[in-house]
Amino acid sequence: MLIEGCPYDFGFLINSYSNASEVCLEEFYRKVPCNKFPEFSDLDDTIMCYKNPKMLETVIAGGHDAKRNEGQIKFAALGILKRTDHPDLWQVYNVMKIIAHPGYQPPSKYHDIALLATGAKIRFNREVIPACLHRGNHLPSVATATGWGAMGHRKPLAEILQVVDINRFSDSDCRQAYPVHRHLKNGYDRITQVCYGDEELISDTCEGDSGGPLQVRSEEGRRNKCLYTIIGVTSYGRACGYVGSSGMYTRVAYYVPWIESITGPLL
């Protein structure tokens, strides 16, 4: 299939997509809004769907990322597993706008979520793929957190992207772990927050992981759109690196209407 001289086939998506001209990409988004390529079977039937161009320019982060003491976020780097990965593997985008949820008022921990708008469309490939947003009230008992934060209490930041499976804590355990205090004037809020960790192992997010995703493999019926679904955004926690500790995560499902009021309908 040729569109204005651009070869849109499997080889294009795997080998040429990252370096394709903006003209070719715009034509691809416009004329091939959702096209399945059987050759992606090794990627669990990933489908390249572009029904909403805003999806290609939006990164979800924590509200605290929008109002940091260290200064404003200027760049987003995608597609890497190690900080020392070759520069050719990095996809670096300018962050043109940071939109924190209007209810986020630091140092309060409520509504800790933000959107980062990039200066160019994000180019998907084997290392960079879109994620769906969780919808509904049901939350899985086990989810996966990823991040570049500290390897433990008072330990250095990770050199390689870390992945950990953590368990959902009950609302009563969350209320006990996160009672009323100056940063949580109403205590744990089960509608907008959720706790994950491990009661028997040292499995937790740590300092520097905040703003990262809490995710699960997408249900089979949605896997034709995305491999993973984001259920939470790492918000904060108590001291990490201890057995039985849990972290607090912003529940994404509650914020989908706000997100889509800015981006339009997403996956």
TrEMBL record:
<protein>
    <submittedName>
        <fullName>Uncharacterized protein</fullName>
    </submittedName>
</protein>
